[in-house]
Specification:
It contains no helices and five strands. With 71 residues, the protein is mainly β.
Length: 71
């Protein structure tokens, strides 16, 4: 089955920032979640995360990379 996937650069030693791959069926702010997503690749410099809903079973899916600054 095919899944929506996010592939992004990742610096494990980056301080002060948290990256989260989030998926949603709508674009409303409260609908985004990383729950149920699957980490496929976690290597130095790279992360690949996929949605948990096959694209054949939904009418719309969206993915985003959320960056949060830590104090």
């Amino acid at each position: 089955e095919a899944y929506l996937t996010l592939d992004f650069p990742f610096a494990a030693n980056a301080l002060g920032v948290t990256l989260s791959a989030e998926f949603s069926g709508t674009l409303t702010p409260e609908s985004w979640s990383s729950a149920g997503s699957v980490l496929l690749v976690s290597q130095s410099g790279r992360r690949v995360v996929r949605d948990n809903h096959p694209v054949s079973t939904v009418t719309a899916r969206f993915g985003r990379l959320r960056a949060e600054l830590q104090p």
